[in-house]
Amino acid sequence: MHELVENARRGAATAGGAAAADPPGDSGVWVFIFADMCAFAVFFLIFAAGRVEQPALYETSRQALDLRLGLANTLILLTSGAFMARAVRQARALDWSGARTSLWLTAGVGSLFAVSKGIEWGNKLSHGVGLFTNEVWTYYFVFTGVHLLHFVIGVVVLLVLIGRCDKPLPQPEKLRWIESGGAYWHMVDLLWIILFAMLYLMRAA
Amino acid sequence: MSAGQEQSGSEQGAPHARQWPVKLVWAVLAGASVLGALLAEGMAPGRIAAIAAILLAAVKVHLVITHYMELEWHHQPLRLMMAGWLAVVTAVLLGTYLMT
Questions:
Q1: Nearest to B60 among A85, A193, A200 (CB)
Q2: Does B82 lie at the interface with A, CB-CB under 8 angstroms?
Q3: How far apart, in whole angstroms, are the C-alpha atoms of residue B71 and residue B92?
Q4: How large is the ipTM?
Q5: What does the DSSP assignment read for A48-90?
Q6: Do the Cβ atoms of A185 and A106 come closer than 8 Å?
Q7: Neighbour-count burial of B11, counting CB atoms closer than 10 A to its CB (0-12 exposed, 13-18 middle, 19+ buried)
Q8: pLDDT digits over A129-176, tens only?
Q9: DSSP state at residue A25
Q10: Identity of the residue in A44, A194, A203 whose CB atom sits nearest the CB atom of B46
Q11: Residue A85: is its pLDDT beyond 50?
């Protein structure tokens, strides 16, 4: 039956992939996701341009970041994202119980990101490093703060999706919800991948 | 994450036959993240570590788009837009870094 669900939703896709097809989930969600990614691209551009102007300041500030916490945040989000990807595949196979369990794991593991981020911010603030210390820290707190806001919204979306797994909704509708929520959750993951490289890993020459 | 559960999806004819198993995607993403961190911590000269970090991030984002978001090349124009976004972000980070 899930093949019927897929065929109804995807329409024009062919085995060779030559024809255009609808992406997974709701197209409106994809518009939002892409617009959000473009907003973050502006963040990345601002930060990169600032580094060109003051490379020494950016490197000194980067060295004050805790690389291990940054890596932990990355691994947490990647693991959470893996559970989300599994939830979508289970939903596509109409395994709603399995999908619900995977969504719980997505939210549970993902929640560690907020804990880790709280520890990191707390450490910085306790050492007198704050939003207005210098422009690098302004960018750091603003960018990671906006990203954390997206993360919190994602957790709320996950809780809604978990509730939808048990509701007697049409299968295509439930699948579309989970695919849409999954795409959003992976966007949070994807943006952190760039933030991690840009803020923590780009050492000066 | 049991292998049996993952396999059951593909056995039932999931439409994304070319997609990697979730565990394989996760392993590559996690491995690339650890490698980038090790390079940044001093396993490589600064410039090499930074360039590797940008390129590894680009590969990771590509994998997330393809295998987690499940956007394939017939999902046009969205897939092209995402690829363009990644190319622009990578070029900006790499280009501005090389200017310093």
A1: A193
A2: yes
A3: 24
A4: 0.89
A5: HHHHHH-HHHHHHHHHTS-HHHHHHHHHHHHHHHHHHHHHHHH
A6: yes
A7: exposed
A8: 999 999 999 999 999 999 999 999 999 999 999 998 888 888 899 999
A9: S
A10: A203
A11: yes
